[in-house]
């Protein structure tokens, strides 16, 4: 079914990240849909490990310059873009000096999770949503990959609930086995600032609890890893949301 507008929101994608299943799967899905004639865009964080020179990232001035307010603090949103190497597929990078310049992803060199991982996820989710609106490009399908992207449907169905921009978009969530970690206990205050409350994940805010929470805010859940860890597998089996077992990349368009 070509001519769909498909938005991939991900925390990993080959070749910007290597050697992970998620990075490989997102690359293959996006390229397959692109090559079949769909209008595909990819959004991901511009983590400090991603070389701007090697991958030829450049800032999109007309999209940058917005501020995202996180817990009453203004954080400037910088948008960079690159073509996937050797392809005519555009990848947009959400950037911010405070949140994404560091070389590690979610844990410091001692393996301790960063205290602001929650703010980074909120900034990423809101940054993607605001940038898509500024592009004036309305996706038919939004496919989420990686724990940070799980904040997107939570925001779309709460903070942006009265905004009709995304009302017809169908949201797909892929589940992956990611390293779990606690999130800042004050995340409830930060979300309350955006009028978001009552989430079950706030009882025990962790990376995994927010991924599980987001299952309630999407149209379809699919296994991104063939075998999920026990907690995720249980949540997958118990969710009332429409779901799909693991699909190989050649079959992913069945979902769309």
From TrEMBL:
EC number(s) per entry: 2.4.1.21
Molecular function (Gene Ontology), one example: alpha-1,4-glucan glucosyltransferase (ADP-glucose donor) activity
Catalyzed chemical reaction(s): [(1->4)-alpha-D-glucosyl](n) + ADP-alpha-D-glucose = [(1->4)-alpha-D-glucosyl](n+1) + ADP + H(+)
Source domain of life: Bacteria
Residue span(s) of domain Starch synthase catalytic: 5-178
Pfam families on file: Glyco_transf_5
Keywords: Glycosyltransferase, Transferase
SUPFAM superfamilies attached to this UniProt entry: UDP-Glycosyltransferase/glycogen phosphorylase
Name of the molecule in the record: starch synthase
The species this protein was found in: Chryseobacterium pennae
């Amino acid at each position: 079914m070509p001519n769909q507008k498909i938005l991939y929101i991900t925390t990993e994608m080959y070749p910007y990240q290597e050697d992970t299943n998620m990075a490989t799967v997102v690359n293959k899905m996006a390229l397959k849909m692109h090559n079949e004639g769909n209008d595909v865009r990819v959004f991901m964080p511009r983590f400090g490990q991603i070389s701007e020179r090697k991958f030829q990232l450049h800032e999109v001035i007309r999209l940058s310059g917005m501020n995202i307010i996180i817990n009453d603090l203004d954080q400037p949103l910088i948008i960079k873009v690159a073509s996937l190497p050797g392809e005519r597929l555009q990848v947009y990078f959400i950037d911010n000096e405070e949140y994404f310049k560091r070389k590690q992803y979610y844990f410091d060199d001692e393996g301790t999770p960063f205290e602001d991982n929650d703010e980074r996820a909120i900034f990423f989710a809101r940054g993607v949503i605001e940038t898509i609106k500024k592009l004036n490009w309305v996706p038919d399908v939004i496919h989420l990959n990686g724990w940070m992207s799980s904040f997107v449907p939570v925001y779309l169905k709460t903070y942006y609930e009265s905004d009709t921009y995304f009302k017809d978009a169908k949201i797909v969530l892929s589940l992956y086995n990611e390293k779990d970690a606690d999130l800042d206990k004050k995340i409830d205050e930060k979300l309350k600032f955006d009028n978001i409350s009552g989430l079950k994940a706030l009882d025990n805010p962790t990376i995994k609890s927010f991924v599980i929470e987001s299952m309630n805010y999407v149209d379809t859940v699919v296994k991104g890893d063939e075998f999920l860890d026990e907690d995720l597998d249980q949540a997958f089996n118990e969710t009332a949301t429409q779901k799909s077992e693991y699909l190989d990349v050649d079959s992913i368009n069945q979902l769309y």
